[in-house]
Specification:
Elements lengths: L3 H13 L2 H7 L4 H15 L4 E3 L4 E3 L1 H29 L3 E7 L4 H15 L3 E7 L2 H9 L5 E5 L7 E15 L10 E2 L8 E3 L6 H13 L2 E2 L8 H9 L4 E5 H7 L7 E5 L5 E9 L5 H18 L3 E3 L2
Parallel strand pairs: 3-4, 3-5, 7-11, 8-9, 8-10
Antiparallel strand pairs: 1-2, 5-12, 6-10, 6-11, 6-12, 6-13
Helix pairs in contact: 1-2, 1-3, 1-4, 2-3, 5-10
Length: 306
């Protein structure tokens, strides 16, 4: 009969598509992981993985088995959480996922209030791209994520928390820098920087460029918001940066000019998400309320939802 360990190895392989990286992820040797995948295929009497000379991929059956294995692992994690919750209440460790475009600029305002309200609760924070975090959440390796929306998964609960403005920033010597207030038409033909693919913010900036007839610089994608800030400061192009990042890393230092612009779609929406069957759902709803409360008093840049 297939084991949970084999399911764990298969899920890791499906996400890495590389035996060595999958083995490193689950902290076993490559031969051990490979042998367990082969044993799983033997037990199911069907191939799950297509092994090529330079790459691997899942068979159609392998994809279906992986999806079901991910749900099984999540159910097991929920059972473990249920047992822990019955003994300790709002104690123990919550595994939180957050993208690097948000976590460093939001969590420092939230964590102190969360710790004061639940001193026995520990927070393990993991950064990653939103799509990767959603997979980790579905697979039971994370309990909760804070992420830009939308999150489209039928087995995840999503609660919108706030809207965060996207601000236009340019170098001090940029042609638009002296205007202060700009119009949509001012962005036509302008070169625009974006963070690398895989982030909601990349897709959003790409759509803004289409709406404003601006030119997205696909050859100059930043790996972080800091990279975008530096390239914008060197005059490579303008950038749309989240308000919390601007507050934390730019402020009044003068390295970039922050421009005012009226546009109905210049924001990103942020929410919390957790598995629908999670026993920690009451705690997560309290965390959502705590984030709103903290934002209301400390973060005027945000527009609260709910």
């Amino acid at each position: 009969m297939p084991t949970l360990r084999q399911f764990k190895y298969l899920v890791a392989l499906s996400e890495e598509l590389h035996f060595r990286r999958a083995a490193e992820r689950v902290h076993v040797t490559q031969p051990t992981l490979s042998a367990q995948i082969q044993e799983l295929e033997r037990q199911l009497k069907a191939p799950l993985v297509e092994r090529g000379a330079s790459h691997i991929m899942l068979t159609p059956l392998g994809r279906e088995v992986t999806d079901r294995a991910r749900r099984v692992l999540a159910e097991v994690q929920d059972i473990q959480d249920l047992a822990a919750s019955s003994q300790h209440g709002f104690q123990g460790t919550i595994r939180l996922g957050v993208p690097p475009t948000l976590g460093p600029y939001l969590l420092p305002h939230i964590v102190p209030d969360l710790h004061a309200k639940h001193p026995d609760l520990k927070l393990y924070v993991q950064e990653g791209k939103p799509a990767d975090l959603q997979l980790e959440l579905q697979g039971g390796r994370l309990d909760l994520i804070v992420s830009p929306l939308p999150i489209i998964h039928t087995d995840l609960e999503v609660e919108s928390i706030f809207r965060e403005a996207l601000l236009v920033v340019v170098a001090p010597d940029h042609p638009l820098a002296g205007k202060g207030q700009i119009e949509r038409s001012d962005l036509a033909g302008q070169n625009v920087l974006a963070i690398e693919r895989g982030h909601h913010l990349h897709d959003q900036v790409q759509q803004l460029c289409e709406d404003f007839n601006a030119n997205l610089l696909r050859d100059y994608e930043g790996t972080s918001l800091d990279t975008l800030r530096l390239m914008a400061g060197m005059g490579v192009g303008l950038a749309f940066l989240p308000a919390l990042y601007v507050r934390s890393e730019i402020g009044e230092r003068g390295e970039l000019q922050v421009l005012q612009m009226e546009a109905s779609n210049l924001y990103r929406q942020i929410g919390l998400s957790w598995r629908k069957r999670s026993v920690h759902a009451p705690l997560f709803k309290l965390i959502a309320d705590l984030i709103r409360s903290t934002a209301r008093t400390k973060l005027p840049e945000l527009t609260l939802i709910g």
